[in-house]
Design goal:
This is SusD/RagB family nutrient-binding outer membrane lipoprotein. The chain has about 550 residues and is mainly alpha-helical. It has 3 domains: about 5-270 and about 530-550, Serine Threonine Protein Phosphatase 5, Tetratricopeptide repeat; about 290-300 and about 315-390, no CATH class; about 415-505, Four Helix Bundle (Hemerythrin (Met), subunit A) (Up-down Bundle). It has helices at about 10-20, 50-55, 60-75, 100-110, 115-125, 130-155, 175-190, 215-230, 240-250, 275-285, 295-305, 310, 330-340, 390-395, 410-425, 430-445, 450-460, 470-485, 490-500, 500-505, 530-535, 540-550, and strands at about 80, 155, 170, 260-265, 290-295, 320-325, 345-350, 355-360, 405-410. Strand 7 and strand 8 (about 355-360) form a beta hairpin. Helix 2 packs antiparallel against helix 5 and helix 15 packs antiparallel against helix 18 (about 470-485). It is globular.
C-alpha cells in the first residue's frame, strides 16, 4: 500500500516510544529488564528542544543549500545566482525542481514533527514527565515550525501529522493552522506566567535560544503572536487576527537584541552540521556554488547611506572587466545602464579586439539583478558584483571569522517593526515612528553597527515616518525586509504580504535575451510546489488542498498574500 512519506514519521515515533518504554510488557520478569535502558522516567524531554531548534533554524549544509539558499534567500531577493562561473543561471528554483524543492519538504517533515509530538506528549499534564514550562516551549516551537512551512507551501499536513492514526494525513487550511497556532501561543504565554529560569528546564543547556530563561520565551511567544496576527490581518476569514495583534501589543514584546531567538554558530566547529552559508561558500562547490547580493538589497542600502551595507556585503573587486567587441550591443548597454543606475563610476576603452570597463578596485558596491538567464551569464563576471561579508560566510573554512552569523529564528527588531505596522494599520495605538526607529536601532545593533553610525542614520529622512499613510507603511515594510538578511523565509513572506520593496515584487521584464522566463512567467514567486512524493502517494488530500487554494504552482497566492 502506498502511503505518504510524511507518515513514515509514525514509524519513527513508534520506535521512540519503544526505546522510551524499554520494549517490555508488564509480564516480563525483572531479569528481562535492561537496567541501563532509557525509560519515560529517565529521559529528559528537554533534549527534544535543541533538535527542533537546530533543524528548523540552523540545519545542515544540504538542507540550508536547498531550502534557504536555492529558494528562500533568492525568492526574498537578498541573494542571486548566475554570475559567470556559477553552476546555474538565476532562473533556478523559479521552475519547480524535485531535486531541490522536495529536499526541503522531506527533510523538514521527517526530522522535526516527531520531536514536537514527543516533547508535547511527554510534558503535558497527563504525560510521563509533566512540566508546564517545557510544554509551553513545545507549543511555541510548534507554532514557529509550522508557520514557516505553511508560509512556504500554503495548506499543509498539520493536525494529523505523526498522530499514529492515519497513513495519509489531510492538508489543513492555512487559516486553521494560523488560528490554532495563535491559540497555542496564547496558551504558552499563560502557562509561563511569572516562571523564571530556576523552575524552567531540567537541563537549561539544552535550550539553544535562551538557556531556559522563561521570560524571554514568553516575549518570544507574544512577539510570534504579533507576527502571525499581522500576517493574517486582512486575509479572508481571519477575524481572529486583530484580536491577536491587540493582545500582543498589550503585553511585553522583544525590546533588546539579547532577546533575539537564534541558533549560534560555533566558529571552532568544522563539520557541515553547524556551518550554513560558510560550508557552501568555501567547501561545497567552489565558484559554482557561490552567490552574490541582489541589486534590490544593495540599492536600498546604498541609496539611504545605511551603515549595514559593509556589514552585509563586500565592495566589488572591480578592476578591468573585458568583453569581446563581438558582444551583443544590447548586453553591453544593459551592463552600462546597471553601472550608471547604481552610481558605480567606470571608464570605457577599446583595444583591437575588446571593450574594457575599468572600475576602482574594492571601492563600490553593486548587486546582481534578479533572474538573469544563461545567455547573459558570461557577461556577469565575478568581479562585477558584491559578495556576502565575512560575518555571513566566514573568512575561510579552517580559520573562520568570529563571530559568525547565527541561524535567525525571531529578531527583536521584527517585533518593533510589526508594532509600527499595526499602529499604521489602525489596529493598535501608540507612536508608530518610535516603534519604527526602535526596530531600525535593534536591527543595526544586531549587525554590530556603532552607536554613532546608528545616530547618524536616525537623523536621515529614511528613519522618519513623514509621508502619506502608504508611504510610511512602505518605509516600515522595507526596513523590516532589510532587517531579515539571512532569514530568507521571513523576508520572502514580508514581500508577499506587504508588496514591498516594489523592486522585489514587481514583474521582471519580458525579455528572453536577458531574463530567465520560466513556467512562473514574469511574476513573483508566491509559494513552493508540493513534493512529488505527496502528489503521487497522497493524491486525495493534495487534491483537496489544491481545490481550496488553487493550482499547485509557484504563481498561486497563498491565503494571506497581498
Amino acid at each position: 500500500m502506498k502511503t505518504s512519506l510524511i507518515n513514515k514519521l509514525i514509524v519513527s515515533i513508534g520506535l521512540i516510544a519503544l526505546v522510551l518504554s524499554g520494549g517490555c510488557t508488564k509480564k516480563f520478569d525483572e531479569i528481562n529488564t535492561n537496567p541501563t535502558q532509557a525509560t519515560p522516567e529517565s529521559v529528559d524531554p528537554t533534549f527534544f528542544v535543541p533538535t527542533i531548534q537546530r533543524y528548523t533554524f540552523s540545519p545542515d549544509r544540504e538542507v540550508w543549500w536547498r531550502a534557504q539558499l536555492i529558494h528562500a534567500d533568492r525568492f526574498a531577493d537578498h541573494f542571486r545566482f548566475g554570475a559567470a562561473g556559477s553552476w546555474w543561471d538565476d532562473g533556478l528554483s523559479y521552475e519547480y525542481s524535485p531535486d531541490y524543492t522536495d529536499w526541503y519538504w522531506r527533510d523538514y517533515y521527517t526530522r522535526i514533527p516527531a520531536s514536537i509530538v514527543e516533547l508535547l506528549k511527554t510534558t503535558r499534564p497527563e504525560g510521563s514527565k509533566p512540566n508546564k514550562n517545557v510544554y509551553a516551549v513545545g507549543l511555541i516551537l510548534k507554532a514557529m515550525y509550522y508557520q514557516m512551512l505553511t508560509d512556504s507551501f500554503g495548506d499543509i499536513p498539520y493536525s494529523q501529522v505523526a498522530d499514529g492514526k492515519t497513513l495519509s494525513p489531510q492538508y489543513d487550511a492555512q487559516l486553521d493552522i494560523y488560528k490554532q497556532s495563535i491559540t497555542d501561543l496564547g496558551d504558552a504565554i499563560t502557562l509561563i506566567g511569572d516562571a523564571t529560569i530556576e523552575n524552567a528546564f531540567v537541563k537549561v543547556s539544552t535550550d539553544l535560544f535562551y538557556n531556559g530563561d522563561m521570560q524571554k520565551w514568553k516575549k518570544l511567544a507574544n512577539s510570534m503572536r504579533l507576527r502571525m496576527g499581522m500576517r493574517a490581518l486582512g486575509a479572508q476569514g481571519a477575524d481572529f487576527a486583530a484580536t491577536a495583534v491587540i493582545a500582543s501589543l498589550g503585553q511585553p514584546l522583544m525590546t533588546a537584541i539579547t532577546e533575539t531567538a537564534k541558533v549560534d554558530k560555533d566558529p571552532a566547529q568544522t563539520g557541515y552540521l553547524d556551518d550554513g552559508y560558510n560550508n557552501i561558500w568555501w567547501v561545497f562547490g567552489g565558484e559554482g556554488s557561490k552567490w552574490k547580493l541582489s541589486q534590490s538589497l544593495i540599492h536600498i542600502l546604498s541609496s539611504t547611506n545605511d551603515p549595514r551595507l559593509a556589514k552585509y556585503a563586500k565592495p566589488i573587486a572591480g578592476g578591468a572587466i573585458t568583453y569581446p567587441k563581438t558582444t551583443d550591443a544590447e548586453y553591453l548597454a544593459f551592463i552600462e545602464n546597471l553601472l550608471n543606475t547604481e552610481k558605480v563610476p567606470f571608464t570605457k576603452s577599446t583595444t583591437a579586439n575588446d571593450i574594457v570597463y575599468t572600475i576602482a578596485a574594492n571601492t563600490y558596491y553593486l548587486g546582481q539583478p534578479a533572474r538573469m538567464n544563461d545567455k547573459i551569464k558570461s557577461l556577469l563576471v565575478y568581479n562585477l558584483f558584491s559578495d556576502p561579508s565575512d560575518y555571513v560566510i566566514g573568512n575561510d573554512y579552517t580559520q573562520r571569522s568570529t563571530p559568525m552569523m547565527p541561524g535567525w529564528a525571531y529578531s527583536a527588531s521584527e517585533a518593533q517593526f510589526y508594532k509600527a505596522l499595526a499602529i499604521l494599520k489602525g489596529v493598535g495605538s501608540g507612536n508608530a515612528e518610535q516603534a519604527y526607529q526602535d526596530g531600525i536601532r535593534l536591527a543595526m545593533e544586531q549587525f554590530s553597527v556603532t552607536a554613532g553610525d546608528i545616530a547618524t542614520f536616525m537623523g536621515t529622512n529614511a528613519a522618519k515616518l513623514n509621508g502619506s499613510a502608504e508611504e510610511n507603511y512602505e518605509k516600515v515594510a522595507t526596513q523590516l525586509w532589510v532587517s531579515l538578511y539571512g532569514h530568507g523565509f521571513e523576508a520572502w513572506a514580508v514581500a508577499r504580504k506587504t508588496g514591498y520593496p516594489k523592486s522585489v515584487t514587481q514583474d521582471i521584464p519580458n525579455n528572453t535575451k536577458i531574463y530567465a522566463i520560466t513556467s512562473l512567467g514574469v511574476g513573483y514567486p508566491q509559494r513552493m510546489q508540493y513534493s512529488t512524493n505527496e502528489t503521487q502517494l497522497n493524491q486525495t488530500n493534495v487534491a483537496a488542498a489544491i481545490s481550496r487554494q488553487g493550482p499547485d504552482k509557484e504563481s498561486t497566492k497563498i491565503w494571506w498574500a497581498k
